[in-house]
Amino acid sequence: MCVERSEAEAVFGQGREVVVAVLLRMDEQIGRLEQRVARQDERIAVLERRLNRSSRNSSVPPSADPPSSPPRRSKDPSGRKQGAQPGHEGHGRGLLGACKVDEVVEHWPQRCGCGHVFCEAELRPDSEPVRHQVEELPELTVRVVEHRAQRLRCPECGERVRGEFPDGVAGSAFGPRLQAALVALSVRNRVSRRDVVELGEELFGARLSTGSVDAILTRASEALAEPYEDLLQRVRDAGALNADETGWRTRGERRALWGLFTTRHAFFQVAPSRHEDHAKSLLNGTTAVVTSDRWWAYRSLPLRRRQLCWSHLQRDFAAHAEGLAAEKEFGEHGLQLSQQVFRAWEAFAHTHDRRELERTITRLRRTYKPIIHGYATKRPRNKRCQGMARNLLKAWPALWSFATRDGVQPTNNHAERALRSAVIYRKLSLGSQSERGERRIERLLSAHTTCRLQHRSLYNYLTELLTAHARGKPPPLLA
Description:
This protein is of the alpha/beta class. The chain is built from 14 helices and seven strands.
């Protein structure tokens, strides 16, 4: 509120006490306004941080980056064009051996450039032919086999007797190879039930319905019950594993999809939430070093059996480096530490010299721990960087397990890559519609991701699995 000169003179004319009272009241009002401005500045800073969040400084996926976000990988500063450079040795498509060729078609020249026309007697090769191979699909169609159980009348007692169908025939109208193809399309390629029906009719000439596809997926899930339980035990028995979790939906309600991963196995489980109880249940009995992010559900694990993800830390440090004053300095120190950790790990990946890795990590620990401790106790304090610094000091042993334990990696990228397929499936299918659907998808996703990690054909595995299930034999495991 502006005060005119005449109003100020009128107040001054009323005496000393009135002037003092007005000044004190104005000072109180100024104090309230300063507090309000400070709160607004803090709120604006928070909103700006949210606006500037991207995959570079948070756990937001790259697909959610705003258009204004800079590219994750800048162009080559040398100015060279993308792709192979002049002089680069090409990688052409190689020819298959003669034993793998199904048909050979000979093409003979008809006439020479001089006008001579070749006769049949002259068709003798002068040198090695020029070879060109074309790979083509045969005409695809389902092969329908009709099984007939014949009836006979016994000449002695007159009783009519019927032949029996063999195991695996009467249980379904579809063979194991066709069922395996439909399951692979649904899970690995994330094709909807209706589209699977259309593809089955167009590609194979199979008569299908959405109910048939759903029944086939249920049958595959039932066949996977034993391999799925064996998979969990194998993951728990590993010396090192990665863990991560993401959201899920069942009938529109929030759920959580948990994942445990080794280099050769993947185990998924849908749970009610992302709370600590589910992490304890999944990791029950394991003595492995678990690589994860800093989600609080893993806090029950001893620090000596944890490895925090340095990629997550690097993104958090990048967010702090975009701040001001002490927060900016803290973020820059954190980015320097992260870069040196990744350089040390990259060198170890090439040399496999663990002693050198341990020496480098020991030096980094001694150098940066006092720096982080200084930000944890610095005055005047910055709540954001002070909170992260204190959390890092509490979990300090869990930052360096990768330097001394075989199989442990400094990042949780392995788990995030393995979860990506499940996240895309969730976005396309909108989750599950029942508890039985949850059991089905967690088993099918586990089989799909495990086969991918083992460079194994999902289609071949499902064919063997469904064949064994139809005949009542033990299922092949995902070992």
